[in-house]
């Protein structure tokens, strides 16, 4: 399986979804603007901790939310990277 932008977009919409648009049948492209950076992080071998920190910052600083959703999403995104063989070699969480 290839790790690509579309798969990251899908994971952000399905597994992260901090504002709940997936559950309400909202637009699938709601979080697409965050996907390129997340993809670059995954391809560079980011750790779970780094990915959680990034998603948490988006939730709290850009969306004004409580930052409660990044852990599950980070794990799902790292699984995508590992399926391709480009995942992180280290984890600090």
3D structure, described in words:
- The protein is 55% helix and 0% strand.
- It has helices spanning 5-16, 35-43, 48-62, 70-84.
- The chain has 93 residues and is an all-alpha fold.
- It has one domain.
- Helix 1 (5-16) packs across helix 2 (35-43), helix 1 packs antiparallel against helix 4 and helix 3 packs across helix 4 (70-84).
Task: Name the features.
globular, 4 helices, mainly alpha, disordered C terminus, 93 residues
Outline of this structure?
The chain is built from 4 helices and no strands. It is mostly helical.
| Multimeric status of the protein | single chain
Shape: globular
Task: Provide the residue-averaged pLDDT.
Answer: 89
Give the helix level as a range of percent: 40-55%
Give a count of the beta strands, DSSP E runs of length 2 or more: 0
Number of domains: 1
Low-confidence stretches: 88-93
In whole angstroms, the N-to-C terminal distance is: 25 Å
Q: What's the tally of helices?
A: 4
Strand content: under 5%
Radius of gyration, rounded? 12 Å
The run of helices and strands is HHHH
What does the main sheet amount to? Answer: none
**Based on helices, strands and strand pairing, what is the structural class?**
mainly alpha
Strand and helix map with partners:
Blueprint lengths: L4 H12 L18 H9 L4 H15 L7 H15 L9
Helix pairs in contact: 1-2, 1-4, 3-4
């Amino acid at each position: 399986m290839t790790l690509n932008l579309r798969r990251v977009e899908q994971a952000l919409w399905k597994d992260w979804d901090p504002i709940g648009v997936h559950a309400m049948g909202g637009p699938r492209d709601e979080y697409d603007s965050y996907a390129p950076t997340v993809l670059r992080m995954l391809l560079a071998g980011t750790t779970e901790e780094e990915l959680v920190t990034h998603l948490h910052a988006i939730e709290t600083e850009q969306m004004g939310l409580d930052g409660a959703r990044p852990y599950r999403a980070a794990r799902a995104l790292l699984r995508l990277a590992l399926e391709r063989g480009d995942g992180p070699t280290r984890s600090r969480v």
